[in-house]
Amino acid sequence: MDTTGIANLSNVVRHFNKQGGTIILSGISPKLKEILKSSNLYDDIGEENIFEHTGQALDHAISTIDHPKCKGCKQFAFHECHQLSAGKKLIAE
After folding, report:
1. Domain holding 26: CATH number?
2. Buried b (16+ CB within 10 A) or exposed e, 22-45
3. Would 86 be classed as within a structural domain?
4. Ranges of H-type helices in 19-87
5. How much is the pTM?
6. Within a domain: 11
7. Within a domain: residue 38?
8. Lower CB count within 10 Å: N or C terminus of the chain?
9. Rg of the Cα trace of the chain?
10. Does residue 34 sit within a domain?
């Protein structure tokens, strides 16, 4: 990742954090991990939100969903959104 990528990711992280959201990463290379650490993005994202495997990241995401906020939302960014909008809870397996 070059400096433009770091700047763009930093803007996304800042925007999501400001909105009360969370960035979750999975499967990053050791080199990218070092770049994130040297740019302080690692700390901004939070070690608790960086996972080795996608399944772990998804389980974490599902466990942290603000269910009342999803109820009635019509964005439907993911296939799970239909269930959440209808007021059904997702459970990480």
Report:
1. 3.30.750.24
2. ebbbbebeeeeeebbeebebbebb
3. no
4. 30-38, 41-45, 54-63, 67-70, 81-85
5. 0.73
6. yes
7. yes
8. C
9. 15
10. yes
